[in-house]
Amino acid sequence: MKNIVIFASGFGSNFQAMIDAIKHGKLHATIVGLICDRSGAYAIERARINGIPVALFERSASPSKVEMDKAILNQCQGWQADWLVLAGYMRLLSPMLIQAYPRHIVNIHPSLLPKYRGLDAVGQALNQKDSIYGLTIHYVDEGMDTGEIIVQVPFETDQLDRDHIEKRLHQLEHQTYPAVINKLIVEESV
Ligand code: GRF
């Protein structure tokens, strides 16, 4: 069984989707811990409810970003992580952390990359009055949402309304992300 560590900064609905997929036998992995950088994040509560260890790393408590990421790396190694799964983690990872897990750090982003990298991808797409939206799951490299693409799921809509689009995106994310992580893990094991 592979060990995964989830990184999240906020609500954690994708984290919950991973927990549920494991419970339903759709994701063959163990979540050994949650890395979180915000003490008020609801993701922490989800971890507590499900008995998953949490390591909180707030930037304000660390002398530098590199020091913080060294401590995060230590924690992931201590948990014997095989995969790092970013699910709404709002910080870029340091090169040192990325290099410690080559092709084993994955992120989900709510746009069809390379369009709309960075913050508020849905808002960026809405500003362009796009009719095609979607999500991208990709390996993490040192850039902002620039790593090699693993999967993209597009959908079309003429309802240019943020709530509608975000709801649809979240549904797709929750179906797709655990399945993709499972596929990566299974492929590695054969
Ligand atoms: C998701 O839309 C994901 O694509 C993006 O951040 C959001 C996190 O949502 N990276 P949640 O915290 O998993 O609910």
Main attributes of the structure:
alpha/beta, 190 residues, binds 5-O-phosphono-beta-D-ribofuranosylamine, single chain, 6 helices, Rossmann fold
Describe the structure.
This protein is of the alpha/beta class and about 190 residues long. The protein has a single domain, classed as Formyl transferase, N-terminal domain (Rossmann fold, 3-Layer(aba) Sandwich). About 40% of the residues lie in helices and about 25% in strands. The protein contains six helices and seven strands, in the order βαβαβαβαβαββα. It has helices spanning about 15-25, 40-50, 65-80, 95-100, 120-125, 160-190, and strands spanning about 1-10, 30-35, 55, 85, 105-110, 130-140, 150-155. The chain has a seven-stranded mixed beta sheet, with helices on both faces. β1 (about 1-10), α1 and β2 (about 30-35) form a beta-alpha-beta unit. α1 (about 15-25) crosses α6. It is globular and about 50 Å long. The two termini are about 15 Å apart. About 35% of the residues are buried. The model has no long low-confidence stretch (mean pLDDT about 95). The structure holds 5-O-phosphono-beta-D-ribofuranosylamine (GRF). 5-O-phosphono-beta-D-ribofuranosylamine binds near residues 8, 11, 14, 87 and 110.
